[in-house]
Amino acid sequence: STKHIEDFKLMRLRVVSPATVNRSLSVLRHVFNLARRWKKYYGDNPVSAVGLLEENNQVERVLTLEEEKKLIEQSTRYLKPIIITAINTGMRRSELLKLTWQDVDLDMNLITVNQTNSKSKKQRRIPINSVLRTLLVKMRLKSGNTEYVFTDDQGKNLKSIRSAFNIACAGAGLVGLRMHDLRHTCATRMIESGASIVAVSKILG
Q: Which of 7, 39, 160, 186 has the most CB atoms in a 10 Å sphere around its CB?
């Protein structure tokens, strides 16, 4: 029913962008159209009745150093290291939240993103720079027996940072900033510092 489709849209919007929801809805709409063509379904297409979401086709932006400073200052205790790591590695939000200490090699200065946590389903290794190493060493000393690198105030694995990120952006006066823009910021800074596009592509996966 249309109610099922509306519920699905709301459920998915909690974790993905409107554009991603629309791709799922397009597939569902096509499934219903095929079912009608094959005489397996005789009602109206509920997806067509509900319609797609409005997409905000926002141009990717690059944070200035001043904007980065403001964002970090406005972030909660547990969000700050995530922001710093995102800007210095280009890791996706899902990869950051699933990162464990077993994936962090402070001797070799490498972070391993396992294929099960990677969007491309391929393992990759990301170099740890001096800024990030200083942060991770301090965090490791305070981590105790926690499995995950980034945890909430109770030391538990974070499931979502959407609300905390939005609040930090509002406090820093950064309208329309997305978590994905931190990844874009990282890529741009690496290229500006002399890294090749091929190297940056491999690091970002």
A: 186
| Rounded Cα distance, 32 and 101, in Å | 45
Residue 48 and residue 5: Cα distance in Å, rounded?
10
32, 45 Cβ separation under 8 angstroms: yes
Tell me the average pLDDT across 179-201: 91
The token pair at 28 is 């569902």
Match 């406005």 to its residue by tokens.
74
Per residue in 17-29, pLDDT (tens digit) is 888 888 899 999 9
Q: Which two tokens stand for residue 13?
A: 């919007």
Helix (H) or strand (E) holding 192: helix 179-192
CB atoms within 10 A of CB 176: 10
- The CA distances from residue 156 to 78, 93, 167, 188, in Å, are 11, 17, 21, 33
Q: Is the dihedral of CA 81, 87, 92, 93 positive or negative?
A: positive
Which ranges of the chain would DSSP assign to H, the alpha helix? 2-13, 18-37, 46-50, 65-74, 79-89, 93-97, 130-142, 162-172, 179-192, 197-204
Which residues on neighbouring strands pair with residue 113, listed in sequence order? 124
